TrEMBL record:
Active-site annotation: 105
Pathway terms, separated by semicolons: Carbohydrate degradation; pentose phosphate pathway; D-ribose 5-phosphate from D-ribulose 5-phosphate (non-oxidative stage): step 1/1
Protein name as catalogued: Ribose-5-phosphate isomerase A
Family of the protein in this entry: Belongs to the ribose 5-phosphate isomerase family.
Lineage: Bacteria, Pseudomonadati, Pseudomonadota, Alphaproteobacteria, Caulobacterales
Native source species: Asticcacaulis benevestitus DSM 16100 = ATCC BAA-896
Record's catalysed reaction(s): aldehydo-D-ribose 5-phosphate = D-ribulose 5-phosphate
Keyword Isomerase: yes
Length: 230
């Protein structure tokens, strides 16, 4: 079973958690895209949902399928958010942001009563950190911010320098107008400590560690979908 087949498998499986009348957050990325397509099928079949999106990319996909995306500020608390991840670790600690949507994703996740992460089997790991940790940085005075990030990383025995994400020759700019720096951590032994240390830095808008946010993980694989809880 290919990774893409597993992504479809979990995107389709997540629809079982969606009930008529719910307010639902749509994640970003190739796995979440399968969920968006499955939601579009449900709506075509008559289900009524209020939808919000975690990125311009997802909004464009949803609208191309005929879905209506509401402004998050007009809908209050969400019932559910379904999104992909780059790594799913112990306790459903996650690395997200491979698609550079981590800030809007985290905002939507934190405004949802329940969050489901969907991923193919390769994303399920024993220790977070093989996937480079994305950090979203305010562009003004970014060099100073990156120096402060490097100092924090050293405190956590991470010696790799943050690397600016680029699109061709240009810096990658997020939907919110910020830069992304990726850190090849290797292994993150203290995710909670690292998350709060990074978040405390002026100039760091947010980072891709999603801790204590996922309620359920659906992991794809040849033997079917595994359902994990923290
Ligand atoms: O966090 C994300 C975007 O910011 C994505 O959910 C994550 O990168 C997984 O993407 P994919 O499903 O394409 O592997």
């Amino acid at each position: 079973m290919t990774a893409d087949e597993q992504k479809k498998q979990v995107g389709d499986a997540a629809v079982a958690y969606v009930k008529d009348g719910m307010k639902v957050g749509l994640g970003t990325g190739s796995t979440a895209a399968w969920f968006v397509k499955a939601v579009a099928e449900q709506i075509k079949a008559g289900m009524k949902l209020t939808l919000v999106s975690t990125s311009i990319q997802t909004t464009q996909l949803a609208e191309s399928l005929g879905l209506v995306i509401k402004d998050i500020n007009d809908v209050g608390m969400l019932d559910l958010c379904v999104d992909g991840a780059d790594e799913v670790g112990p306790g459903l600690a996650l690395i997200k942001g491979g698609g550079a949507a981590l800030l809007r994703e985290k905002l939507i996740w934190e405004q949802a009563n329940s969050c489901i992460v969907i991923a193919d089997a390769a994303k399920h790991v024993a220790t977070l950190g093989k996937f480079a940790l994305p950090i979203e940085v305010e562009p003004f005075a970014w060099k100073g911010t990156v120096n402060r990030i490097s100092d924090v990383l050293i405190e956590f025995d991470i010696t790799m320098m943050p690397k600016a994400r680029k699109k061709g020759d240009d810096y990658w700019i997020t939907d919110g107008g910020n830069l992304i720096f990726d850190v090849a951590c290797g292994a993150i032994h203290e995710p909670a400590g690292l998350a709060s240390a990074l978040k405390s830095l002026t100039g760091v808008v947010d980072h891709g560690l999603f801790l204590d946010l996922a309620d359920v993980a659906l992991i794809g694989g040849p033997d079917g979908v595994k359902v994990l809880h923290p």
